[in-house]
Amino acid sequence: MGERVVVGIDLGTTYSLVSVLRDDVPIVLPNALGEHLTPSAVSVDEQGVWLVGAAARARAVTHPLSTVLAFKRDMGTDRTYRLGGTTKSPVELSAMVLAELKRDAEAALGIPITEAVITVPAYFGDRQRQATRDAAEIAGLRADRIVNEPTAAALAYGLHRRDRDLRVCVLDLGGGTFDVTILSIADGIIEIHASAGDARLGGEDFTDAIVTWALEAITQRHGAAPRPDTREHARVREAAEHAKKILSREPTAGLALPGLALGRATVDVTLALDREQALRLWKPLLDRLRAPITRALRDASLLPSAIDEVLLVGGATRMRPVVELASSVFGKLPSHQLPPDEAVALGAAVQAALEQGHSAVEDVVVTDVAPFTLGVESSEISGNAVVGGLFVPVLERGTTIPASRVKRFFTLHPEQTQLNVRVFQGEHSLVRDNHFLGEYLLKGLPTRRAETTAVDVRLTYDLNGILEVEMSVVGSSRTEQLVIEQRPGKLGRAAVDEARRAMASLKIHPRSTLPNRTALERAEALFVQLTGPERDTLGVVLGHFRATLESQDPAVIEPARKELAALTAALARRE
Fold first, then answer.
1. Do residue 456 and residue 522 come from a single domain?
2. Given a cut of 50, is residue 1 above it in pLDDT?
3. How far apart are CA 409 and CA 375, in angstroms?
4. How far is CA 193 from CA 150, 298, 313, 525, in A?
5. How far apart are CA 286 and CA 1, in angstroms?
6. Which of 10, 198, 232, 299 is catalytic?
7. Is 149 an annotated catalytic residue?
8. 34, 216, 275, 424: least CB-packed within 10 angstroms?
9. Same domain, 72 and 151
10. Contact of 353 with 116, CB cutoff 8 Å
């Protein structure tokens, strides 16, 4: 495979994957469990050992206060999580997931991995993209290329459809984000025409709607409901997630919660949810899905009938109402030609191969567009008053990138000697409703008796989301630049180094014994849910497996683990 290998990483809200081009075909690499999907979950046990992935995900039911899920939604924010006696930011938690994927890739490929292409939602803002880069750096990865998730999916799709000219709409609904991208494929050229989306809308919201309904039903029947951040609340959420999946193939789903502790009482709760009820719960969410689709089509100046194929990406697109929504909007059945959970990761591998100059993709060309409008704050004089805080677009959303656009601004008064250039991204007319990116105070402007000074502000935006601001004083040779790389929210070198030292000092569960720990945690999570003979049976096999672990003999442990895993899977299917 050559000396330099760049991997592709889909850092998802619910699951994350690592991929590479092998034998000219993109593949997803297995983790320590032999699985492709690594849950984006982090947990710490009673001994201070940190778990990442499936074992951590299983502990969300049994140890909700020491487990964190869906932290990708908080990337680029100041939120922190308290667990294991320590405080972790979304960046640090994401770094732990990336480090786990790095270890898996190194184990699968047998070489050190230091470079990665990482995907992000197309509608991720500047802060969120920078937070992703920071997480990669903490994990020991150089992420020179950040790719929009629908663009990555289009790359994977386009690799197999180079023989046809198509207009495609990619609907990417993951656990926490929704993206819509309109693109065309012709002769190996993938051209993005428009992107829209919602950075806080995903499959988790559909689960949340069922949880809210279930808690209300439990309260009506029993006068109380589990409180947030408790084991019982985690059980309700797990049952809601299970019901959501069942409703995609069955007309009715049951939520069985035997032995649910409500204060001092313990009750057996059984709820039934049919599709019609679920659709009523989900209607506000489905309405939110429509808006970005409409916007992307409008930005691309296309009618739904002009789309040749609708490609569904992301695990949440398996939901029946999402498929039905896509069918009703476009008048055709959407495509699941690529595995929804893997499409983005496979595309990341293609982009990684492009970065390496791989011959298998030398005829593939991809263009992308700016997902947000970039502009500058301005003020106007109205009578004797100065109206400030106005947003002036310079580089419009939908502009093919890399791109450079310039707009001229003037000082408000002839004697004004400095101009504060403040850059924002967003679509609102007032800067207060958009996202601040950076500023530069242009000093020493020439003063004139009767006229104001003109300054040309040029915004240059590249494929990695790095924005350069160039300010030229008209009538002079003076030009100054601001590269907005040290953005709000970007960690400085000292902070990154400190985060790397902190992560290196953590007791991470050994990869070699992770299958054993995962089998234990999955079985324990199911044990909490069960009652009666099934629980007794699982308890016996669980106890036997714990006993075999004491022997530290792989020849004894492996068959016991397989027995426990098979029983856990069988009992989970009956739930």
1. no
2. no
3. 12
4. 12, 11, 18, 46
5. 44
6. 10
7. yes
8. 34
9. yes
10. no
Band (pLDDT 50/70/90 cuts) for residue 486 is very low
What's the pLDDT score for residue 490? 60
Q: Is 259 part of a structural domain of the chain?
A: no
Given 311, 341, 369, the domain boundary residue is 369
pLDDT above 90 coverage of the chain, percent = 54
8 Å CB contact between 395 and 370: yes
Which pTM value belongs to this model? Answer: 0.84
DSSP state for residue 424 in the 8-state scheme: E
pLDDT per residue over 134-143, tens digit each? Answer: 999 999 999 9
Cα angle 270-39-501, degrees, rounded to a multiple of 5: 135
Question: What radius of gyration do the chain's Cα atoms show?
Answer: 26
Both tokens of 302, joined, read 């296309």
- Give the tokens for residue 189: 């050229």
Per-residue pLDDT at 218 exceeds 90:
yes
92, 100, 149, 341: the active-site residue: 149
Has residue 255 been placed in a domain?
A: no
Structural domain containing residue 533: 511-574
Residue 3 is among the residues annotated as catalytic for this protein: no
> Which helix (H) or strand (E) element contains residue 377?
strand 374-382
Question: Which of the residues 45, 72, 74, 179 is marked catalytic?
Answer: 72
Looking at the structure, do residues 337 and 380 belong to the same domain, yes or no? no
| Distance, C-alpha 517 to centroid of its chain | 26
Tally of structural domains, the chain: 3
- The tokens describing 23, both together, are 């034998």
pLDDT at residue 269 above 70?
Answer: yes
Q: Spell out the alpha helix ranges (H) of 247-340.
A: 275-299, 320-330
Among residues 45, 106, 134, 172, which one is catalytic? 172
Indicate whether 164 and 303 sit together in one domain. Answer: yes
Quick count: other Cβ atoms within 10 Å of Cβ 3? Answer: 5
